[in-house]
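Key result, reporting period 2: structure in, sequence out.
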């Protein structure tokens, strides 16, 4: 069954090419004979009707005959045979061209056979090009959908890695606080449960900068129960950028990364700053390195992969002895 879009494309192509094909068939005959414009016009109209019928016949064969061979060159033979029978009948019953009266019957048959095969072959090629183009477009759409599905699955896998990582760290901190400071541990666990209640039901790829800053502020309050004045957090954001997006949970992950890899005290605090620079979000902190067991760049790799899947851009990491910064391209929703 032809789709509506494909049907419109065939009708449009047939409407444009039919008069042109008829013109190409008629011109050679009348350029070598005495010019008779009326006969020329009548012959052109007849070949227009003949070509249109050829289009209709091919479309009907494709639509009604549910066989694979109908899409091959055998359709040319079948439709040509039908058209030849019609053309031969017309030739015997109507004088389409006065010059044909000087031709013998075999010559007229050969001439009509040439016309029929030529017209039919052109229609076959045009139809074949239309179907191949539609098939290619459909294949491209299916490939794009499959690629998008794979990206969705890949992104979900990356996103699912964030929460277990965060929870593992949070539970480790809770365990340490319970041993050393039970009262503080109780406050921490309460704040943690409130924080998780907000984040656990969010199932999105990205969040607006405003939403990410709110999550980051809640996370900082949670961490200040442990570190107090040793942790400083500064935000300097262009308000026009607040509606733009970054991958969900990115700010919290970067803050957590800074806390994990640095030593800090109230006398030498960890200073985390979030700023916007043109179309980039910059998260930076002073460097006071701490030795950490295990892989040190897993969190950054996750953020980079999620950012690349959403925006097509890698994050930019700037690292030296005094400063560590991550630049992320803001996404316009």
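The corresponding designed sequence is given below.
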């Amino acid at each position: 069954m032809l789709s509506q879009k494909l049907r419109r494309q065939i009708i449009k192509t047939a409407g444009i090419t039919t008069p042109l094909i008829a013109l190409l068939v008629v011109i050679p005959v009348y350029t070598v004979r005495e010019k008779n414009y009326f006969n020329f016009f009548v012959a052109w109209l007849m070949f227009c009707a003949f070509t249109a019928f050829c289009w209709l016949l091919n479309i009907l064969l494709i639509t009604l005959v549910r066989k694979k061979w109908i899409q091959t060159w055998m359709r040319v033979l079948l439709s040509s045979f039908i058209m030849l029978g019609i053309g031969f009948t017309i030739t015997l019953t109507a004088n389409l061209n006065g010059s044909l009266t000087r031709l013998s019957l075999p010559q007229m048959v050969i001439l009509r056979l040439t016309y029929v095969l030529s017209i039919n072959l052109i229609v076959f090629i045009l139809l074949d090009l239309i179907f191949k183009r539609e098939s290619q477009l459909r294949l491209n759409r299916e490939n794009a959908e499959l690629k998008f599905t794979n990206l969705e699955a890949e992104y979900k896998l990356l996103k699912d890695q964030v929460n277990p990582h965060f929870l593992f760290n949070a539970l480790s901190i809770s365990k340490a606080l319970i041993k050393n400071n039970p009262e503080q541990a109780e406050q921490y666990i309460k704040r943690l449960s409130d924080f998780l209640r907000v984040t656990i039901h969010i199932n999105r790829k990205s969040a607006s900068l405003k939403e990410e800053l709110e999550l980051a502020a809640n996370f900082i309050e949670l961490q200040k129960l442990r570190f107090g004045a040793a942790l400083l957090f500064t935000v300097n954001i262009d308000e026009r950028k607040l509606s733009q997006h970054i991958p969900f949970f990115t700010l919290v992950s970067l803050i957590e990364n800074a806390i994990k890899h640095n030593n800090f005290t109230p006398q030498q605090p960890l200073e985390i700053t979030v700023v916007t620079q043109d179309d980039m979000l910059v998260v930076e902190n002073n460097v006071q390195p701490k030795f950490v067991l295990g892989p040190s760049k897993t969190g950054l790799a996750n953020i980079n992969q999620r950012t690349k899947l959403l925006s097509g851009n890698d994050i930019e990491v700037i690292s030296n002895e005094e400063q560590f910064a991550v630049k992320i391209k803001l996404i316009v929703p």
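The longest strand covers residues 270-277. The radius of gyration is 37 Å. This case is discussed further under Risks and Mitigation.
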